[in-house]
Amino acid sequence: MATILEQAQQEKSRRDIVRQAEVEKQDRQQQQLLSQAEQALQQAGPRRPRPHAGLPGEIVTSVPTPSEEPEFVPPTIPPRQFRGFADEFIRALGRGSLNVGSSLLSAFADVAQESVFDVDRINDLAEKAREASREPKFQPASDGKVKGFIANAIGDAIPFMAGTIAAVLVGGPAAGFSVAYAVEGKNAYFDALETGATESQAEMEGMIVGSINAALELLQVKQVVKFAKVGKGSLKEIAKSAKKKALKQIIQQGKNLSKEAVKLAITEGVQESLQETTAVLAPLITGRELQEKGKLRRIGQAGLGGAVAGVALGGAGRAAVNIATRNDTVTPAKPSPKPEDISPTPPEVTEQVIIEQSKDKPVVPTENNQVNRQLIEKKIALVQVDEESNNAVNLLDKFIGQRQLEEQRANVNTLNKQESIAKAVGEVRYKKQSQVMDEAVQVYIDLQNNPAQMKFFDKLTNAQKEVVTLAQNLPSDIKQIADQIITENRQMGKQAQQNNIIKQALDVYSARIWQEEPPARQEFLKRKFGTKTSRARARTLEGILHGWSIGKKLRVKTATGAQNAAQIQVATTIVDRETLKLARKWGLISDKQPEGWVPVEHPNFADWRYAGEDVVGETYGQNFFVTENGTILERRRLYATPELGKSLNKILATPNLKGVLAVIDEWNTAIKQTILYTSFFHHQAYIRSYVGGGRTGIKGLNVAQAYRDGRQAVMNFETDLKDLVFAGLTIGRVQDIDESVIKRFDNVWDRVAKALGKEDVGAFQVLRNIRDKQTDFLFKRLGPYLKVQTALLEYRHELNKQKSRIESGATTRREVADNVANLINDDFGGLNLQRLGIDPRTWQIARFLMLAPDWTISNVRTMTKAFKAGDQGAMYRAFWGRVLGKLLGATVLWNVIMAALDDDNAWERYQKAWKAGNLRWLDVDVTPIYRALGGREDRKYFSVLGHFRDPLKFLVHPFRSAKHKGSVLTRMSLDVASGQDWRGREFTSVTELFGGEGITKFTVGGAGVLEPTQILSFLVYELGGTQPIQIQNAVGFLLGEVDAFDALTKSAGLMTGSVKEQLQETEGRRLRSVRKKKTR
Where do the segments described as Disordered lie (predicted)? Predict the structure, then answer.
């Protein structure tokens, strides 16, 4: 359908605005045409594309309707004598073949304009075929009566049906639709020209009739045709509604001819009449008068002819479909899901719809694009069958969007609960005391479920006893919050039970999630809450106190956190189930495997069927699940179309590093997290993205107010924010680091503490608390709130800017939301991996090799998308305009101020910055501040642009940038390969190291792969690089590698740099210049 709409837009754009005289004429004829349309619709409907077989004893002619314009007399086909059934059938078969061939050739010529094919030659062949089909020898005989009528009906039908069925078998319904559109559209086009239509009117009628009748070729009638009288073959009434079904159902299987033949005859008859009605009514839409004389007879002829062809060709159709259904083709259904309602609600084609859409509208001069959009929408509304929407792309769009909406609703609910707890304990925000109270609420809820577990109290640690005591003495306002959580959990449990997600509501009444011991392997049926999962383990224990008493630890300690996890799991599973139902109705998923279809791996997309009762002592494979009452359910695979199946398997995959790689990944992630969080990079980057890239204006530069506004917007979860979330805006995602890997790494220290007989390792626990606070502040508050506020400012600006285009249909709110969500995700990081179709396993490798893949890739995307055309490219260019205008403007202004305090003038300072390299000319020269603090030798620079320089860095220094953006593991590998540190200094040998030369040195001639004698220096260097930034700078200062200014500013996260004053050249540059001279 998308191709057809594009063709419609291209063709309509060439259409001139109708003359004002035609407008006045249409106004005079409007009431008359509407009356004609209503009369026609009483016996109406679209047709199958065949030349009209006359009723027995009749010659087919076309008689124009009298009008105010000069009468156009079409050519009349001369009569021919009937020579027997076989002769008539062969002639009709030839006529039908020529007609179909002519239409397909003509349609091919239209799309081959820019190709290597000889379009003129193709058009000549098409015209010759069409002229040949109109020769007297191919026309229906004048005295064939019933036999002649039947022969013509069948002969006309075979070529078209053969072409359509063959196309469906080879390319599916879309290919069949294309063939039907070509034949139907070209027939209508030439018919319109022959009845006096202008070229533009004929083109539009061809598009309308072609698209509608092609869609109806894939439809089956819902209601049975009713005959008031069955005398002399006269039709009294035609069923007035049709419903879409699959091609598999259109051509019914079956070996018994009687009942199936009658049903197929009825279907073909009604379908023919419906298609013929489309051709009859098409002139109404293009502003022409109906062909009054003979139009109802044409409809009746088409209906009777279709019924005859249906009986005769039913056997052939069933034979063809037997081939088509060997692969168990799944029946598609009519889709029309809304963003927040995944269930399909398809509209019906009604008489009133066709009447309303057939009314003439005055033609007024408008822009071509607007006219195109309005006419295309008018055509789609006329059919009320959106073939484009029942595909994998749209299903995935609804699936991902709805999942993200449900996740964010759960997160908002959690934030509001935590806000209430903080308010109750007297904290400004949810901090330490609030968290302790939240843990007590979790225990309170668990004790409400099973008070008997207090028998384990004496076996608890002191800290655990304090939490239990607090849980038994909750303040009244906290107890109200706890009771509210219990109520919500019960409601959620019932909802999950109704959707067959869990077997008992207690699963979510108190969602206890335990740490795995040892670190958990990925469970195959995790979402089924099997008896081996961390959630299910709660059911094998009496409660939290029982688990604590045997040394277990909760992975989610708070009531709000546990509710959040359960709510997301239940809600997303329900979305998965609804998506599965819809995919089946759309014909995209089946329990059979047609050729080319792929199995869906995610357990939510599976059939669970009864497989017997549990036997004590028996073991079952991973495809079996034993319920709590002993029923065995077997998981049956489902299969999806290649596009849908591959996409689902990709976006729902689970990272799967194992063994040694998993251990390396844990250490790599832990070290990377330390470096990122202690550098304060994200803090500055978030503020810089809001101030530099946001549509803030002067008043909006108040970051604190933006933080509060964004927070309020998240708590309210207003409509605009829902639009953006559905479109893909991410909120609070941490994607540079896998938090589950960090949890597993923490378990190592927990086991160490357990081995030492302690509750925790003190120093590590302090660092863990600092890290968790940083994570919470950065990714749950600062980043999300500024990101949301920036997104809302951009979205509302674009909605206002695009208001007229949205009203005219040139664009939609959803398209605007898509562009804004992409821009803000690229600006702030937090790429929507599912929307981008990125496999989590691929992303795990990216995290394994890169320091901050999310931030790096998003920076590249902001750069490349600025070169795209259309609304999205314009939005990105405007974004970069704001960045350069505000941040680069601030850099220039600050440099002017600094120049007033320096001995050098502004131009001399700029020349020095240029010679310094490393894009220092984009920084602020803060040397006067450094000199005021006692510095003497170096020039100091500070970057206002910060990470917005990265795209330029990638272009100027691609290899250096790649190394700097690499993970700890990647950098270590590159250091081994080069034998040098990041400054190009070679690692020293053991003798040199203990001789006082340090761990690196400058050498002439370059270095090579790390040698065994350099391993010790290399390890000392890499160990220092894994420490927090503050420790690295302190050590560098003590060793004399950096001065106090750099150590302090970099430890604070400021992006400062130093350049030697003398000749603006470091020792390394001098040595490299000497090395170059010696190699000449």
Answer: 1-78, 328-348
In this prediction the pTM is 0.61
Alpha helices, DSSP H only, in 586-718? 642-651, 659-678, 681-688, 703-716
Contact yes or no for 515/483 (Cβ under 8 A): no
Residues 710 and 707: their CA atoms lie apart, in Å, by 5
532 HSE (CA, 13 A, CB side): 11
Residue 152's closest CA among 201, 202, 206, 84?
84
90 token code pair: 């062969």
615 phi and psi, to 5 degrees? -115, 125
Q: Which residues neighbour 379 within 8 Å (Cβ) at sequence distance 6 or greater?
A: 8, 207, 208, 211, 212, 285
d(CA 65, CA 63): 7
- Within the chain, how many helices (H) and strands (E) appear? 45, 13
Tokens in use for 252? 């019914």
| φ, ψ dihedrals at 966, nearest 5° | -75, 155
Task: Retrieve residue 33's tokens.
Answer: 């045409």
β-strand pairing of 598-599 with 639-640: antiparallel
Distance CA 1006, CA 985 (A): 9
Distance CA 712, CA 551 (A): 41
Task: Give me the residue label for tokens 């639709």.
Answer: 177
Q: How many CB atoms lie within 10 A of CB 352?
A: 8
Regions in the chain scoring below 70 on pLDDT: 1-80, 110-119, 163-181, 192-390, 499-512, 515-540, 614-622, 625, 627-629, 743-765, 1004-1007, 1061-1080
- Spatial strand order of the sheet with 639-640 comes to 589-590, 639-640, 598-599
Residue 510: name the closest of 465, 477, 474, 471 by CA.
471
pLDDT at 819: 96
The pLDDT, as a whole number, for residue 698 is 85
- The beta strands (E) that lie in 557-682 are given as 589-590, 598-599, 606-613, 624-626, 631-637, 639-640
What Rg, from alpha-carbon coordinates, does the chain have? 37
Residue 1012 and residue 989: Cα distance in Å, rounded? Answer: 8
Closest CA to 586 of 244, 989, 108: 244
> What pLDDT sits at residue 480?
94
